[in-house]
Amino acid sequence: MPIAPLLQRFVDDELNRSADLISRTLVSTLEQLRQPRDHLLTASERKHYFDLVQVLQQHQALYQRSFTDALRKLVQAELAPQAQVPAQPLAGTLSLGGLELMDENRVESDIEISRAIQLIDTGAEWELRELQTFTSTLRGQAHVTAESNPLRPQSYARALWQAAAALPAAPAQQVILLRASAAVMAGLLRMAFAAASTRLESMGVTPGIYRTVVIAPGAGRAEAPPEMDVTRPGALDGLMRSMPGGDTGLGGGTDSKRRALPTASPALEQALVRVEELLRRMPAGAIAGTSPEAPRLAQHRAALMATTGETVDRQIIELLSRLFETILSDRALPTGLHAVIARLQVSALRIALLDPSMLDAYDHPVWVLMDHIVTATTTYPHASDPRLAALLQFCETLVSDMAAEATQDSALYRRAITRLDAFLAEQLKQQRHGAQATIDALMQAEQAELMQRNLSARLIEQLVNIQVSSVIRRFVTVGWARVLTESVLRFGDQSPQTAGFLKTVDDLLWSLKPPSHPQSRQRLVALLPPLLQRLRDGMALIDMPATEQQQVLDDLMKLHSEALRPGSANAPAASEENLSPEEIVRRMREEVATEPEPLDGPGFSDSLIDLASMETVPAELMNAQATEQGSDPLAWVKHMAVGERYRVFLHGAWTQAQLLWRSEHEQFYLFAGETPQRTHSVSRRALERLRAAELLGPLHAHSLIQRAVDGMLRNLARPV
Question: Do residues 394 and 337 touch, judged by C-beta distance below 8 A?
Fold first, then answer.
């Protein structure tokens, strides 16, 4: 869809003002960082503030340029979403052989972005709503929507994060900068949005109006929504009895649960046939549009109610027509889906007239089928998505087949649910097949993680009686565990390379605390050159940063120099305390990110034969966090089902995703994205973190009919 020239001009003008916006934001942010108000900050935290101020002052131009460039790209993507391309891996994203993996460290930045969005949105809430009334007009919309405004809080928050990430600063400092700058920008945007609305008004742009649902004439109006729990079974039946009854003045006379007529009245049946024929012949576009000819059950409500004198019939017609009116008025439904839902109106009404149990619970087959259809289609927000096209085509065929059936009952809908579920299962299978390369990479990544965890646990055990610096301890228990894992995966567990790296462990551990006599010093002198070379080879294998390599080698040189000194008692490094073995084990576990439990097992000189079975990790390692099963995020993530659809905040924005696959040991999850061939690989710990931050949940918290009832009650309570 082409962009209106006036809208494009408005957006360009606002983007040109973004340089001044970020400049003013930077000035105020620097003032706040120089004098933090939190007097409880530790010395290290204050050091972060001091270093961040220095970095900002030195790289002001980079920071401002990164913001304006990022904002322009994000706003243009909002303006023309069909032009969006899959997001590139961001800083902090773990890459496994080209695979982009969202781990817990990466989602921390998403959590901070979500907080910044909320901060900006709350600070400029009213001004943002006013601006939306003008942007809706610029887009040519009849009613106001939040989506009409391409200048959204999420774009500013994401641009602030990208600007912070461009600086040569520590991750903790980037987070501090995002929090401070978002608070400053929230106030500045409040004034900027108000000024933008004033400029548009002075240009003669008329603000739009928020959409209201007008209740049909003669239907009456409720002063307030009924006091009821829309999630309670039987709530629809109670709501039906509270509905206005047209000319007869209904108030709950006949109990629908005691009525079970074999057929509708002849006059009502003829009216239903006429409406169904109109629905069958009407093009899908007319159903989705706002044209008065659009065939909705609500438009024939008066005619249908005039064909029956039954109080219950009139109540059911009133209720069902209003429910479908609410569902079909949802602008979030894909265009082709309106036709599918509309074709079910008469069929659902027939069943409701003859089967009172339909109004007793939300798990009736009629509601379940419609909920499955809507949930599946709304997962694909892009009209050009071939998955959506295939699904809509199937649903159109399905409802056509249902309409051709002579008997309209619950069994018909149960069979339709079975057919739909089979189609969705096949669609899921095809998506998994297309993502098989990613699945294979994740399986290998899980194998590597579990192997590394096992190796780290054994190294902790080997190091327990040797007191060394934290740098050496972490290198041995984490870094060298990665070396061994990489060697096994790349060369094999029986390869000379792996055998050499295993032998390096024994030599390194011995060199850290050799016996104090001349023969040991002579052996150490002969051992050091090949040992250091193997250490360098291992660090190169895992691409350890040069600075970290040098730090390890420097610490080793100090230890070995002390050990080679005549008369040395091989005392522990001066930087370490004389700790008990228990305290040493505790500290070493803290150095290991996965925190594995220590295992009883042989030293590495005898462990080569065990490496072939590393894929099967002892249960005590795999359940290292078993004690946390009662916590809500972990339990919730463990119950996520393959095939289910979720709403999750990834890459700085909300997205709809379907769970395609979870690894055998539940370390990694693979989701299908909103566009074909787009997948999201996420670690379990990242999902737990997102869930704890309320950034992961079901696609819809309530079923379709529950949402429709809630919307209908709001419409009834709204003044005409």
Answer: no
Query: CA-CA distance, 680 to 90, in Å (whole number)?
Result: 13
Alpha helical stretches, state H, 565-655: 581-591, 619-622, 632-638
**508-551 per-position pLDDT tens digit:** 988 888 777 778 778 888 888 999 999 999 999 999 988 889 99
Residues making up the chain, counted from first to last: 720
379: Cβ–Cβ under 8 A, 6 or more apart, which residues?
645, 656, 657, 658, 674, 699
Contact indicator for 297, 346 with CB cutoff of 8 Å = yes
Question: Alpha helix locations (H) across 289-334?
Answer: 301-306, 311-328
- Rounded Cα distance between 341 and 327, Å, is 8
CA distance 546 to 198: 56
Find how far residue 307's CA is from the centre of its chain: 50
Residue type (1 letter), 700: H
Instruction: Give the least confident one: 157-161, 425-429, 459-463, 569-573.
Output: 569-573
Is residue 588 a contact partner of residue 460, using CB atoms and an 8 Å limit?
Answer: yes
What is the reported pTM? 0.73
Angle between helices 345-354 and 335-343 (to 10 degrees): 30
Beta bridge partners of 656: 647
3-class secondary structure, 384: coil
Please give the backbone phi and psi of residue 104, each rounded to the nearest 5 degrees, phi first: -65, -30
* Measured distance CA(459)–CA(41) in Å, rounded: 36
d(CA 90, CA 71): 16
Alpha-carbon Rg of the chain, whole angstroms? 33
CB 318 within 8 A of CB 215: no
Whose tokens are 């078993």? That residue is 626
Q: Determine the Cα–Cα distance for residues 259 and 471; give it in Å rounded to an integer.
A: 79
Give Cβ neighbours of residue 319 (< 8 Å, ≥ 6 apart): 236, 239, 240, 243, 352, 359
501 with 487: CB under 8 angstroms?
Answer: yes
Determine the Cα–Cα distance for residues 64 and 217; give it in Å rounded to an integer: 57
User: With contact defined as beta carbons under 8 Å apart, do 101 and 668 qualify?
Assistant: yes
Largest CA distance in the chain: 112
